[in-house]
Amino acid sequence: MKRAVILSILALLSIGFLINWIYSYEKGREDAYIPISKDKELPIIPSESAVFERSGFALEYLNMPMDENHQRTLDTYYENRAYPGAPPSIPHPVKEKLGMGGVTCLQCHQNGGFVEKFNAYAPVTPHPEMINCKQCHVEQRTRSRFKATHFYKKPAPIVGTNNALPGSPPVIPHQLQMRENCLSCHAGPGAVKELRIDHPERINCRQCHVPRKRQYENIELFVRTNSTTND
Ligand code: HEC
Ligand code: HEC
Ligand code: HEC
Ligand code: HEC
Questions:
Q1: Ligand with the closest atom to the CA of 79
Q2: pLDDT at 226 > cutoff 70
Q3: Residue 110 has pLDDT above 60, yes or no
Q4: How many CB atoms lie within 10 A of CB 54?
Q5: Ligand in nearest proximity to the CA of 172
């Protein structure tokens, strides 16, 4: 009798252990995780402060081995956007259908890392403070139901053509709004491979890279209108 009681207690305990173990194992697979430390103390120009937001990770990015088999490309990057700079749609299933996002999304998108179930690295969001993610990012429902239109997708600036001389730092060819936090898109395993830089440790990006000025883009137009008024 005594033995039966002990045995059944043991059986209960081991079932409990198993349930707990499976539960925490499955839970553990959920989060993307890169073990990195972070402490920051930097002199900062207020309008450029976001440039430094991920600079605590710069050395880790520099020394991280690259996983060649799971890289995003510029083609897939633009494919998922209505036009360059538009919010990308969510290309994966989302658990909480009614929530606005927040922590549900940030567990993977704040620091990135490999996500086994999507077989990809989560891209790091440049704006973790905008917690109503689904205000701007919507789930992909279908790729076939809509008819093609004549919507003209503005071409993106061409990577590799933005420097004055070979070897000089290219100008920033894109707007800075929503793109203040450079390292989120230009470093790490979740970054597009054509955009990933070899110098993430030079954390003061805008010391060398200046925004392209619109008046130079339109210089031809400017000269033309000027000459017509002179005629
Ligand atoms: C379990 C981790 C995980 C969670 C949770 C998660 N994502 Fe993702 N997300 C990923 C991964 C991994 C990718 C990359 C998919 C790929 O490249 O195929 C991705 C891709 C994206 C992209 C596309 C980015 C681009 O540049 O094309 C958007 C947008 C996005 N997620 C938004 C969200 C939002 C909003 C939420 C919350 C509602 C969310 N994600 C929750 C892992 C996650
Ligand atoms: C106010 C609108 C807005 C909100 C809110 C917002 N996003 Fe974005 N998000 C954008 C836009 C616009 C882009 C594209 C930026 C670009 O390409 O210049 C973007 C880009 C991204 C990317 C792609 C980065 C890359 O490297 O390709 C991810 C991932 C992402 N957002 C996740 C999130 C998550 C997670 C949240 C919630 C915590 C969120 N976003 C909230 C507008 C928003
Ligand atoms: C939302 C993601 C994102 C963020 C954040 C971002 N960039 Fe970019 N960057 C891109 C993309 C995409 C391109 C390719 C051209 C394009 O589509 O605008 C690019 C192109 C560039 C180029 C030109 C590269 C070449 O070879 O021609 C430079 C320089 C650059 N970015 C610098 C910066 C700096 C500096 C910051 C921070 C102030 C920054 N970027 C923030 C996505 C981003
Ligand atoms: C000390 C000056 C300096 C700083 C600081 C700097 N860069 Fe660069 N960057 C350069 C130069 C020079 C090149 C051109 C390299 C070449 O053509 O071989 C370059 C190239 C690039 C390119 C084009 C792609 C490539 O790798 O050639 C991008 C994108 C870029 N930098 C982004 C950044 C970002 C993001 C930061 C901040 C983390 C940054 N840079 C900080 C000088 C700098």
A1: 1
A2: no
A3: yes
A4: 25
A5: 3
